[in-house]
Design brief:
The protein is of the alpha+beta class. It has 2 domains: 60 residues; 81 residues, Glutaredoxin, CATH 3.40.30.10. Helix content is 46%, strand content 11%. It has 7 helices and 4 strands; from the N terminus they run ααααβααβββα. A 4-stranded mixed β-sheet has the order 2-1-3-4, covered by helices on one side. Strand 3 and strand 4 form a beta hairpin. It is elongated.
């Protein structure tokens, strides 16, 4: 396993120091790492384990358990499609299948050109307007394949 860049290691240590006395510090630290770097690189796992005096397995377990954490950078545009029951009842599964076909990736993957990452979520709080999705930070309701295409194209071209 390669060692992370020294500047990354220093930044991770600084984030740990900012939360050192906090109970349950790992989650807020991981959120800050992802916010700053865009993902939680596997190379920072041993640094976090050492700094927090926990096992690498504990850190890895948290990173892989929570779907909000990424192990690699996301695409320039992130498309999250809701798969909760209310959205399922109005066509979410068909919309996910359509998105996978048109983007050429499965949920959890990024297009080869790095333009779009397709993700799933299990409720955006937009249940009355399903199927719902989130493109970058904006929630959209009543998505159809055509509307999804238009919104993704607009986001990618922005």
């Amino acid at each position: 396993m390669a060692s992370p860049d020294p500047s990354v290691t220093d930044r991770v240590r600084a984030l740990v120091a900012a939360h050192r006395g906090d109970r349950g510090a790992l989650l807020p630290i991981l959120h800050r790492i992802q916010a700053e770097f865009g993902y939680v690189d596997s190379d920072v796992v041993p640094v976090l384990a050492t700094e927090l005096n926990i096992s690498r397995a504990d850190v890895h377990g948290v990173v892989t358990f929570y779907t909000d954490f990424r192990a690699e950078p996301a695409g320039r545009t992130v498309v999250k499609l809701c798969r909760a029951e209310a959205c399922q009842s109005v066509g979410a599964e068909q919309l996910v299948a359509y998105a996978e076909r048109t983007l050429g990736v499965k949920v959890g993957q990024t297009t080869p050109d790095g333009s779009v990452t397709l993700e799933q979520v299990f409720c955006l709080g937009n249940c009355a307007l399903g199927p719902a999705g989130q493109i970058d930070e904006r929630v959209h309701g009543r998505l159809t394949p055509a509307r999804l295409d238009a919104l993704v194209t607009k986001a990618v071209d922005a």
